[in-house]
Amino acid sequence: MGWVDGIGVALRARMRVALMVLVAVVVPSLAAADCPSLDAIQRRAEAFAGLDGAPTWRARSRWSAVVPVISARATTDTGWEEGGPASRATVGPVERQQAFDVRLTWRLERLVFSPDEPRLFESERRARRDRIALRQEVATAYYRWRRVAAQAGTDDGALAAAEAFAQVDAFTGGWLAKVGCP
What we know:
This protein has 182 residues and is an alpha+beta fold. Helix content is 56%, strand content 12%.
């Protein structure tokens, strides 16, 4: 065995010791009851993904009919009289008229049905599907983390537990680590 192999063996031994310390310190806290529940983690993941509290756009679309469409128009008219054929450069008085028109239009038929509703309904349905898929992914990662953490008695087990925790923590945007879960 050469001196390079000896360094590799020493490094591996040190890594084993470091992982054993990690297992001794981290694994008991992984199973701690002070970590948030699955539901709390799922809600935080929804908030991080922007899928929480989606507004009901269909209702807003209907109520938008109560708000009028405002249109405004301004015009300026100029008129004058020219002198007859005998007077060459005679121009009568110049008249200027300005008009300002404002119109308010209500689309009250949209209180019953808005043409945007089918598109908005599909958007809400897509958001519900995304929320369900996200909750399923978080649950899968959460239970994998808990299962691996419970079996993390070996070097590879501690690494797998840390990896599984990082995956769950990524769904929450780092919130899980901030609240004190390892």
